[in-house]
Amino acid sequence: MCGVIVGYLFGLGYLKFLAPPERILRWIEGSSLSNIRTSPRLLKVPPYVSLLCFLGGIIWILLLPLDEYSRRTYISENALLPGQVHTYFHGTEQNIFRAYKHEVADVLEVQEHIQPDGSKAYMQATPQHRNKKIRELFANSGIKSAVQPFKYTVGGVEYEGENVYGIVHAPRGDGTESIVIVAPIKNFEGQMNTNGVTLLLTLARYFSRWSLWSKDIILLVTPNTSTGPQAWIDAYLSQHDPETIGSLSLKSGAIQGVICIDYPFPHRFHALHISYDGINGQLPNLDLINTATQISMGQLGIPTLLQSQQHYAKAEHQHHYKNRLKVLGHGMTNQAIGHSTGAHSVFMPYHIDAITLTAVGEGWEDEMAFGRVIESLTRSINNLLEKLHQSFFFYLLLQNNRFVSIGTYLPSAMAVGAGFSIMAIYLWLKSGYEQREEADVPVREATERDAATEDKVEAALADSNLTNAQLLESPSNGGQRLTKKKEWKSIDRPLVIPLTLVAGLYLTSLVPVALLVTAPHSKLLARAGSLSTVLLMIPFGLAFALGANRSLMDGSFFSSPQSSESANGAPRKNTLVFSDLSPPSDPKIRISQFQAIVKSLSLLVLGLQLTVLATLNFSLSMFLGVLCTPLAFAGYYRDSKMRANASLIAITLFNPFVAANAATMAAKLAGYYNDNVGMKDVLRLWLQNVSFGWNVWGSWGVLVGVFCVWIPAWTVATMGAVSSFVIDEDGQLPRKIEKVKEITKDNLTDVKKATVRRNSPGPVRKRKD
Amino acid sequence: MKCLVSLPEALWVLLTFVSCLSIVAATDYFERLDLTPLPLGSLLASFEFRSNESLEAYASQDFRYFPRSLGQVLQHAGTKELHLRFTTGRWDTETWGARPWDGTKEGATGVELWAWIESDTEQEAMRKWLTLNQGLSGLFCASMNFIDETRTTKPSLSFQRTGDHRNASLHLLHGVLPGKAGVASLLDGHKVFDASWQSMSVDVRPRCVSGQNCLVEIDQTIDMVLNIARAKRPREDPIPRPVQPYELICDETKPYHSQDTCYPIDALETPAWSLKDVFGRPAAGACPLAEEGGPEAKSLCLNIPHSQGVWIGAGGFEVRSPPGEAEKRCYQMIAGEPFDFDMPKTSVRTHKQIELEEELITAERTMTGHGAAKGGMRTVFTNPSATEPVNLVLFESLPWFLRPFMHTLKAQIVESEFPFEWEIIKDLYYRPAVDRRRGTQIEVVLSIPPASVVMVTYDFDKAILRYTEYPPDANRGFIVAPAVVRILDKADASGNAKAIYLRTTSLLLALPTPDFSMPYNVIILTSTVMALAFGSIFNILIRRFVAFDEVPENKIGKLVKSARLRVATLKEKITGTKADKTE
Question: What superkingdom heads the lineage (chain B) (predicted)?
């Protein structure tokens, strides 16, 4: 109603809102759309707009860590009441913790035994023995427990293990909701999480004494962070394959929150590190992270860290721009890769909020303080009446109390995506017009043309009123004067081959993904090598093939050889495209038109892919967008040696294969791996991770991003860039670009004649006469 | 919400129906409390109160042992038989064994009500049913008025009349109100509030002895499982703080045992307890209403092995069960004398435990899948018996927004030591849902082979609700009422057919939930768009386009024009004179 009333007033002219000045309206009216399309000055603008989009997108991201663009975190869900409860996990609970630690360390850690002959032997308990002990400790607290064996086979390697879990039933609860606390035996870095497992067991005993739980508490001990939690949650939701993954004999209700405990060293700790990145870049509700931070810092005075801050940011420097940017970068990298970053990650795809708390550093906080954080956090989640839904699911954290929400960061990825779309539209427009200088008007020749041609010419003329008018204005006494006006003419776009080519490239892009993820680990590197060789060859092969078969590019492939016109030298219309327009007259233009169409289609798809991806996995879209930026500009340049060379350099540098090797080298140099691990090993490790991630976690980001987004776009751009070197008039390899230019100059006059002949307005004038 | 808060008081009101105030014929009143220690420091307390009223007295509203308020509601709604259940928590079959009363006295989590209503037509039955709900809702203050048509089903196989009826045109209606309207404190609020599981039932049924002498019987039970350690905590300070070091019960045989390291073994022990510890007060002596002699007079029974010693107080004397029967001891209390006993500490390691009766079958119902569009229901039945198959009826009453696909209903044996082919699904009764009118009702007759695990599954779609149909806590999800399992073909010791029921846990169904701030955003956005779009179109539509010189001058225009002209001439004059002056 309000809208109607306002609209009514607005319509009557009493309200003036966003009314553009009359002058501007006039201008828009006066300059027709076709003028914009064919204005040489305006047509130069889009590449710069596109470049501006790319730069803008990147600068936007760089602005995010500033105070003006980020916000302070806050608790959105009132029911959480973080840190509002007294915690009682202290005192004699520590006595029990110590005893349990003895029990757990016995089965988890390597034990030194002194043999009867005095020599030392090192032994470690078997997983079965280990699980038996954990179940015994559960039973000792009166908690029901069960085991779940699982086995994953990826690339011929078997990942076997057994989860143990217990359930503390909520007194008076009926098992509709639950909270999960996880302690992996080996943490994400592969260290023994002895303290974490002990803490879980001690807390289990402590929790079972309380009667205030409204949700069941499930206590899960998994052998690792990669397969154990995945097998467990799959089985919990009955999404598992019962052949390889055991079903759960004990179950509870809908999981409202997951907390993972990681305390991988015996000494006291300084701070708690919160990991929150899920599979495929999905994130838990921000309220969960905020609650953990608030409880840890506010209630118990333990600093919290994010994204491995402990390695690069001192506590007092966390708010510095540089450090915030690093946190942002780490977060975005984790999100883009979309792999597990801890036991919590696998819960995210099922819309279950989860975080891992890791003890880091040396300080004076002991395991009981850690336990109190978990206690208070569990109490907060226990308070929830509804699923966590109030706060953000899409955010980038900069510091433990600052974040950027989706509304602020999304424009950057969208701008980058738009950059490609603008280039695509620009190339599409460009490919539909031909700039030509009108030459003299040979009247007599035109009179001899047959009626069919006349019709066509008329049609062509109708499309370009400007030409018609200008020519009519020119002297009409049959003289040989040249009209020196440059003008734009609509031309036909041959679409069949470009569409087939681009669609083919994108559709077949899943083939290498399938080949990689099904490869056995032993052959992974070899298969990746041969795959990249093939993928590298494709654009060159395409460029040479097209160079050798020019008919594919100039549209004459589909025209019948019997055509009288093709014999005449004037190309026929493309018979497959129902259009009144004729293809470009100049064969060179036809080649660049073909290249422009292919490029345009590919960039269009790229722009769309990136925009869609930005809503699913912002960071992946952003990284891919930035890496693909040169592809928007690299391509076929027939008359600029500099641009052709720059294209070649760009596609060589920004090339998935070079990037993979560069990243490996960077990781090696940064010291993430031991010296005895070679580049090849690192590469193999990464490929294994990618294959494992795809098969176990369903993590598709990197593979789909590289093979279905980047490589097809790169292939098209490379094909264009190579084509500028290998294609000339005759389909021969020229020695120099200059030579191409010379040839084109020589041929220019012939071409012009042909053009004029075909498009001469003779008949019109004849009628006028 | 107000109703929920005052619920305990309402129930207390009901329980005063059984308080011993008036002197009446002893046979018309019976009460009993059974105490059964359960493993892991739990205690099952089953109260039963039963009273009779002759049919004539009931019809003429001459209520003596029958609560007047309830009787009037029942008579008004034409209810012949009523079963009302309030249950909270879940019965832990694995730890606690078979259910008390074979599950006949417990309901699903929340409120469950079924009744036989006398009426000529179905419409009338439904009308009376709603009247009954409203009446009980007021009486028990338990939001039972939310048991509407969509939550009401007419079970055909699962429920049987337990009373003796003469009237043929009786309609059975079964309503389930899952959720938060459970019972609260009943006897001693604080103690019972801490119970792990609790069920209260009210059964009203006509009963005829020798065909003529008809009675109306009201049977009320309260069953609860108390955690002894929790119940013993002082009321002023119920927080389970860490105990003092000297209070820890440690395993001193551990090599690492020391002053600051303790491997606890307290969970395996049942602490010492007395009636006062557990219920807050000792028993107040025998009820004068109850029989004074005979087996029914021993109103307090303790199900423990004879080998276990109990210290009893002065207010009662003990009678042990004869050998051969299940070992238990009962106490006859003396009227007016408080009675209590002391149960010493027991441990799993040293004391013989009473053998818990094993459940004939266990049922576990869970939802499978994730996401807001579809899901699946999975019910797993485990038959522990090595020889006996179990026939049962699985009764499910599903809300209309959960739409099951019956073609996906499958029963399969997942684990079995039973080598033969077995037909699992014997019969099926299915009444599909009507959107917003009634829910789905499924009754499946199943036969579970011995020593097998059978899984019954079906898929369902989740409907999208209208946005006003969501409750205030929309993101919590919707509770799906538990399934009721009735075990068939079982007879008690005397050969009579015996009803055995068990219920699964309730489930939380996550439906696609809108962002509730969105509608307002949309309203604002559409209003803006409307204002802009409608405005510009309207502007163009009402405009008449004419050449400039064709525009007729209106009066204001003329006035303005003449005014301008005058001003101009005036200006000219002034400037002219000025110019003249300066020159």
Answer: Eukaryota
Lowest mean pLDDT among A22-36, A476-490, B273-287, B569-583: A476-490
Q: Are A176 and B505 in contact (CB under 8 A)?
A: yes
DSSP A9-68: HHHTTS---SPPPHHHHHHHHHS-HHHHHH-HHHHTHHHHHHHHHHHHHHHHHHHTTSTT
Structure tokens at A603: 């960039």
- The per-residue pLDDT for A564 is 38
Q: How far does the CA of residue A379 sit from the closest CA of chain B (Å)?
A: 14
- Are A171 and B376 in contact (CB < 8 Å)? no
C-alpha–C-alpha distance, residues A274 and A295, integer Å: 12
The verdict on a CB contact (< 8 Å) between A94 and B94 is: no
Q: What are phi and psi of B369, to 5 degrees?
A: 80, 175
Q: Would you say residue B327 has pLDDT above 70?
A: yes
Q: Which residue has the tokens 């909020």?
A: A353
Q: In the predicted model, what is the mean pLDDT of chain A? A: 81
Between chains, do B510 and A387 touch, taking CB under 8 Å as contact?
yes
- The confidence band for B379, taking pLDDT boundaries of 50, 70 and 90, is very high
Residue scoring higher pLDDT (B93 or A565): B93
pLDDT tens readout for residues A522-566: 888 899 889 989 998 898 888 888 877 776 666 555 554 444 344
Q: Which residues of B touch A386 (CB under 8 A)?
A: 473-476
> Testing the interface with B: which of A95, A133, A213, A353 to mutate, by most B Cβ within 10 A?
A95
Q: Which of B242, B526, B537 sits opposite A90 (nearest CB)?
A: B242
DSSP A148-207: EEEEEEETTEEEEEEEEEEEEPPTT--SSEEEEEEEESB-TTS-B-HHHHHHHHHHHHHH
Contact yes or no for A10 and B473 at CB 8 A:
no
Report the C-alpha gap between A338 and A620 in whole angstroms.
8
Please write the tens of the pLDDT for every residue from B443-495.
999 999 988 899 999 999 998 888 788 888 888 888 888 888 988 877 777 77
Q: Which residue matches tokens 């098992």?
A: A175
Q: Looking at beta carbons, which residues of chain A come within 8 Å of B376? A: 238
Q: What's residue B121's pLDDT?
A: 83
Cα–Cα dist A632/A205, whole Å: 61
Residue A453 — φ and ψ, nearest 5°? Answer: -65, -35
Decide if pLDDT at A498 tops 80: yes
Q: Distance between CA A509 and CA A503 in Å, rounded?
A: 10
| Least confidently predicted of A47-51, A136-140, A699-703, B420-424 | B420-424
Looking at CA atoms only, how far is residue B40 from chain A in angstroms?
Answer: 6
Residue A337 pLDDT greater than 80, yes or no: yes
Interface test with A, best of B96, B261, B367 (most A CBs within 10 A): B261
Residues of B in contact with A7 (CB under 8 A): 530-535, 538
Q: B115 CA to chain A: closest CA distance, Å?
A: 25
Per the DSSP assignment, residues forming a β-bridge with B528 are none
A92 vs B238, B248, B506: nearest CB: B248
ipTM of the complex: 0.79
- Distance, in angstroms, between B473 CA and closest chain A CA? 6
pLDDT value of residue B74: 87
- pLDDT, tens only, A141-151: 889 999 999 99
Nearest residue on chain B to A389, alpha-carbon basis: B475
Go through the domains of chain B in sequence order and give each one's CATH number: 46-230 (no CATH), 272-344 (no CATH), 362-509 (2.60.40.1170), 520-582 (no CATH)
| Alpha carbon distances (Å) from A683 to A188, A500, A523, A677 | 20, 34, 13, 10
Alpha helices in B340-414 (DSSP H): none
What number of C-beta contacts closer than 8 Å exist between A and B? 186
Closest Cα of chain B to A220: distance in Å?
19
* Distance, CA of B100 to CA of B83 (rounded, Å): 17
